[in-house]
Amino acid sequence: MNLTWYDWHQGELTTHRLYDILALRNAVFIIEQACLYQDVDGQDLRDGNRHVAGYWDDTLVAYARILATGDRLVIGRVIIAPPARGLRLGHQLMERALAVCETHWPGQGISLSAQAHLQDFYRQFGFKAVTDIYDEDGIMHIGMSNRP
């Protein structure tokens, strides 16, 4: 699968781009995972936040949000669209997200709140558990960081 990758500053999110992002996050995080939570949290359009997006033709199939929160970065909303799963796009997405972090914030520590069953996936990218497993909106998560 040949994707076109984008690294958008929050100010570069057009209505169409933001709609694609919110539609994919809603379809997976709320509908597929049956998790009622407030996805539109006021963070998408703040400060220097960035959005990493992979499009296959005109369809968003891979996405991650990077929050610039002072002294640490937070990678979140990591998602692969259902039809694109099993193609190792998650690996490509994380590599892109980490490259974006290094380009815009060289050497800065990165944190994420991983679904607990994905710990091994994130360990491949240098992340280590920094919290115990906890319940977030009915799904077990664990805090991870690449620099404790």
Task: Give your account of this protein's structure.
With 148 residues, the protein is of the alpha+beta class. It has a single domain (4-145), classed as Aminopeptidase (3-Layer(aba) Sandwich), CATH 3.40.630.30. The protein has 3 helices and 7 strands. It is globular and about 40 Å long. The mean pLDDT is 94.
Produce the secondary structure layout:
Elements: E1 4-9, H1 15-32, E2 50-56, E3 59-69, E4 72-80, H2 89-104, E5 109-115, H3 119-123, E6 128-136, E7 139-145
Parallel strand pairs: 4-5
Antiparallel strand pairs: 1-2, 2-3, 3-4, 5-7, 6-7
Short description:
The chain has 148 residues and is of the alpha+beta class. The protein has helices spanning 15-32, 89-104, 119-123, and strands spanning 4-9, 50-56, 59-69, 72-80, 109-115, 128-136, 139-145.
